[in-house]
Amino acid sequence: MAPPAAILTPHSTKDVSVILKLCNQYRVPLIAYGAGTSVEGHISALSANSISLDMKEFKDVGIPNDGMLEDACVDVGAGVTRLELNHQLRYTGMQFMVDPGADASIGGMVACGASGTTAVKYGTMRENILGLECVLPDGTIASCGTKGALKSSAGYDLTSLMTGSEGTLGVITNITVKLHPIPEHVMAAVCTFDTLHKAAEAVATMRMCSIPVERCELLDESSVAAFNQYANSGKISHMDGESESSSPVPKPSLFLEFAGSSQAAVREQVELTESICVDDFGASNFQYKQDEEERNALWVARHKLYYASLALRPGATNAVLTDACVPLSKFADLITATVKDVEAMGVVGPCFGHAGDGNFHCILPLIDGDSEDYIARVNIVNDNLIRRTIEAGGTCTGEHGIGYGKIKYLQQQYGDGGVRMMEIVKRGIDRNNIMNPGKVVELSPS
Predict the structure, then answer these.
(1) Residue 247 has what pLDDT?
(2) 109 phi-psi bin (left φ>0, alpha ψ -120 to 50, beta other)
(3) DSSP code of 74?
(4) What fold, for 56-181?
(5) What is this structure's pTM?
(6) Whose CA is closest to 302, among 229, 223, 205, 244?
(7) Neighbour order of strands in the sheet with 73-77
């Protein structure tokens, strides 16, 4: 990998069009850059003459002067970040609900098909986009989808094609995103289980009972221990902001959040969830958290797990970050098998995930100078996880995307036909292979 030869900062879609025409004419590789939060090497320059297209100036948010968003959607520039968008929406009574944890740009979230902790209720980026504007490799400006209509059967679904394309088909400049009302009543809950398998089974049962849980996160014992150690070091606050003695019990745990239009409706959701967790699966330490500060601290803890996991191996600066998603019926077995692999291989690897939609991660921290044997054992954990996931009918990536790190797994997941279809789409739109080359699919020279 090499740094880009140049960084360009366009201010308009027309600027992007001019740049792409020139890059296409002279066959100069181009990589669109949002906030740099991706984890699969999406923005890595794989050749020395690449250009980085920084989209930070695309900051428009189409909120009317009166603040009324009658169609529950808004046009957003690709460079607007998730937190910036919700800050601007704060007086409208609406919010954008996809939450990958990092303050990613909306354009980047579309490009990577992001989701996160709220996907269990609100869906991923694919379900939260009505349309978008993009620039194709030859400079053509294309409109995809709608500006507010909730459905369309007009031709190919170009919005979905661009979502998850990781900058390999064009540059996304503007997006029309769905919004949701800010809940009037919110409550969080935490509980612990004797085994990870029981915790995962409890989640599957909750989903079968159609409890409209807002967030549903599962942490293994190692993840909770990582959080406690990180909090005790002073890096983050404890979940309830109190003393060290109130740290979460180091057992498999569920972090939950519920929302509704009335306190009674939320309380009913919580009570039914408590009954399933405690009565059916032996959960203990079931605690409610209504205070906004306590709830925010809970999710800060969850979002800091990457850094907390790195801290389990002093000196670690990066990690293999897995991202499997499986049918809910297989979730308990798959995450349990991964934890056993981590133990058997003698590596550090907290496991946690968005249990409500079958997506889980294993963070495997690496230190510069790790032995070949240690790295080999880490790779065994990762390969076993993906093999089991695909055999179970799942996917090698639920939300992080392919980049260049997971290209080899697409063949396992889709076979020759599926990969060939992606190659045909890529070649048809990006004939000269200038758009983020080497990501998602690898094309031989034409």
Answers:
(1) 66
(2) alpha
(3) E
(4) 3.30.465
(5) 0.92
(6) 223
(7) 73-77, 171-178, 129-135, 141-145
Q: How far is CA 320 from CA 65, 323, 370, in A?
A: 46, 10, 13
What is the residue whose two structure tokens read 């740049």?
19
Block residue for tokens 């600066």? 317
Q: Give the domain 185-308 fold.
A: Alpha-Beta Plaits (3.30.70)
Residue 325 has which token pair? 């998603």
Residue type, 88: Q
First to last CA, the chain: 23
423 vs 416: CA distance, rounded Å: 10
Reference 325, options 390, 419, 406; nearest CA is 390
Residue 240 has a pLDDT of 41
Mark residue 433 as left, alpha or beta (left: phi above 0; alpha: psi -120 to 50; beta: remaining). Answer: left
DSSP state of 41: S
For residue 371, the 8-state DSSP code is -
169 is written with which tokens? 């088909």
Q: With contact defined as beta carbons under 8 Å apart, do 227 and 305 qualify?
A: yes
Contacts of 27 (CB under 8 A, 6+ apart): 432, 434
For 390, counting Cβ atoms within 10 Å of its Cβ (0-12 exposed, 13-18 middle, 19+ buried), the class is middle
pLDDT at 196 over 90: yes
Q: What is d(CA 412, CA 125) in angstroms, rounded to the nearest whole number? A: 25
Judge residue 38's burial from the number of C-beta atoms within 10 Å of its C-beta, 0-12 exposed, 13-18 middle, 19 or more buried.
buried
pLDDT tens readout for residues 347-364: 999 999 999 999 999 999
Give the other-Cβ count within 10 Å of 343's Cβ. 12
Res 239 pLDDT > 60: no
Residue found under tokens 């070091």: 233
Q: Where are the domains of the chain?
A: 56-181, 185-308
Average pLDDT over residues 390-416: 94
Smallest Cα–Cα separation from 431: which of 138, 38, 2, 8? 138
pLDDT-based confidence at 242, cuts 50/70/90? very low
The DSSP result for 415-435, as a single string, is HHHHHHHHHHHHHHH-TT--B
The Cα–Cα gap between 392 and 407 comes to 19
* Long-range pairs of 83-86 with CB within 8 A, sequence gap ≥ 24: 84/59, 85/61, 85/177
Residues in the chain: 446
